[in-house]
Amino acid sequence: xxxxxxxxxxxxxxxxxxxxxxxxxxxxxxxxxxxxxxxxxxxxxxxxxxxxxxxxxxxxxxxxxxxxxxxxxxxxxxxxxxxxxxxxxxxxxxxxxxxxxxxxxxxxxxxxxxxxxxxxxxxxxxxxxxxxxxxxxxxxxxxxxxxxxxxxxxxxxxxxxxxxxxxxxxxxxxxxxxxxxxxxxxxxxxxxxxxxxxxxxxxxxxxxxxxxxxxxxxxxxxxxxxxxxxxxxxxxxxxxxxxxxxxxxxxxxxxxxxxxxxxxxxxxxxxxxxxxxxxxxxxxxxxxxxxxxxxxxxxxxxxxxxxxxxxxxxxxxxxxxxxxxxxxxxxxxxxxxxxxxxxxxxxxxxxxxxxxxxxxxxxxxxxxxxxxxxxxxxxxxxxxxxxxxxxxxxxxxxxxxxxxxxxxxxxxxxxxxxxxxxxxxxxxxxxxxxxxxxxxxxxxxxxxxxxxxxxxxxxxxxxxxxxxxxxxxxxxxxxxxxxxxxxxxxxxxxxxxxxxxxxxxxxxxxxxxxxxxxxxxxxxxxxxxxxxxxxxxxxxxxxxxxxxxxxxxxxxxxxxxxxxxxxxxxxxxxxxxxxxxxxxxxxxxxxxxxxxxxxxxxxxxxxxxxxxxxxxxxxxxxxxxxxxxxxxxxxxxxxxxxxxx
Length: 645
Fold this sequence. Notes:
Helix content is 29%, strand content 23%. By secondary structure, it is an alpha/beta fold.
C-alpha cells in the first residue's frame, strides 16, 4: 500500500475542491457529487476553468437517463477553452520521436497562430459547422493543431493512426463522410519508416466525400508521389498570414469528436461525442483525479487512434504543456520513455499495463538509472494492472509517485473509475468511482453485489460525456442497445468487476466478445474481414484469451481440404491482417480446428470458445447446434497455456 503524506494530500486540487464545499474526505465529496449532480457539475464548470456562458439551467430531464441534458442553455467553443489557458511565451507542445534527434516545440502564441492559419484555410476549403475533418496522422504537433482549428469553426474532428491499413481507415472514415482529409507522408515505428503516400491514393479513391487531401510532411522527403491530387500543408495555408483564431460558440451538446469503438458483428461503432460534456469530464479527471496544474507537463503514450489521445490533448485546458511521442515505447530499449520523462520534465506519465508488465519482465530499474524528480503521477490504463504491476512501479520506477490505475473507454471518452491523490493506493485496485458517477457492481438483473463478488460494472446515473449517439442511427436504437438494453436502467458497457473492501474496484476484463489486447478495443469483425481474403481459410473464430494479466488475440481456422496450417500460411494470414487492418489486429496465436461451434441459428459462438480456452464454464451449451465442437478447443496444442495460473 502507498499512502500520500498528509501534507501532500492537503496540497492537491482534490483536497482544495473538497474543502471549498465543506468535505473532509473523498467519500464525502463523491457522495455529494452523486446526490447533488447539478451542484457538483455547476461547481466543476465554475471552478475548473470552463470558458463560455453556462446559463442557469444545469440538468434537464431524468428518465430515461440517456435523454438527460446538461447545461442546456450553455454556449462555448472547446478550441477557445483549450487555447485560453496556454501561456503565450511557454511551450504548449513538445514533440518527440524514436530518433532522439527528432524534436519540435511550439509555444502557446505560435500554436494559436498556426491554428488561426488552419482555420482560415479550412473555411477557404468550404468547411463549416457540422462538416467532418478527418486526420490519418501520427501523434505530432500538426494533429493537435488540425483538431483545434476544426473545433474552432464548429466542424467535427475524427482521427486514426497511420498504422491502420486502407480497409481499417475506410471502415471508420467512410461512416462520417469527411470533407477534408489530413494524412502524413510517412511514420516511424520500431526503427522502421513506413511510407503512407502509396496507400493514400487507394484511400482517397475509397472516400468520395473528401474534397481535398492535405499531406503533412513528417518523415518523408516532402514529395507527393502517389498522391497527385493532394496538396502539401504549406500549400494548403499558402498566402494566409499568421493570425489569431476566432471562435464561434455553440451549444454544450454540439459535436466535437467522432471516435470509433469496434463491435463484433459489423463495422466499428461510430460514436459522436459532445463538446461541453467531454471537456468538462476531462477537466474533472485532469485537475481533481490526476492533480494536473497549470505549468505541468503531461505525457501519455498513445496514438491518434486511441481515445487517450483526445484525453491528453484536453490537458491544454488546464494550462499544461503536452509532451507528445510517436513511435514504439521500447525502442531502442525500455529506457526511451524514462529518458523522455527526465529530459522533458514530465509531471504526469501516462502509460499502459502492458508497458508496466514488460518493464517488470526486464532487468531495467529506472529508479536507479533516472532522476524522475518531476514525475508526481503515473497513470495506467488499457487493461487491468496486476498487483505485480503496482509493485513494479513502486519498486523499480519511483516509490513516492501517485500510481493511478484508471478505466473507462472510448464510449464515454473518459473514466468510470479513477485515481484519488488524497487516498491510499492498494496493489491491483483502482482507487475510486469517478466523481459525479454512481458506479456499482451488479448481477445480470441489476441487483447490487457485495464487495468481493464479481459482477457487471455499471453507472446508475447520467453524466455529461455520455455520447450524443451513433452515426447512422437516427432513432437511437443501436445506441440504446449498446449501453442500456442488457441491464435496463443503468449504463453498462461490458466490463467484469468487483468492488473491494477499500471502496475501490478491480476490473477483470471484458464480459462481451470485444477484444482488448494492450488496452486497444478491437472488434472481431475487423479481423474476420481480412481472414476472408485468405483462400485456404474456410471459416474462423477469433477470441481474446486472458494471458499474462492482459488479453491476446487467438484465431482458430477451418481450412480447405488439402490445406495445412504450415509456417508459410500462418505468416500469410498474419500479413493479410496486418496490411488490411493494423499490427494490433494480428493474432498472437493461430490454430487449426475441424469445426467451429455455432448456435442453432448459425451464429459463431465466440464467447463459448473464449470460455473454454480460458478454462471457464460454458453455461449455454443447449443453445449450440454442435456443442461437441467445443471439445477440440480444450487444451488445444496451439495454446498450451490455455489455463490461467
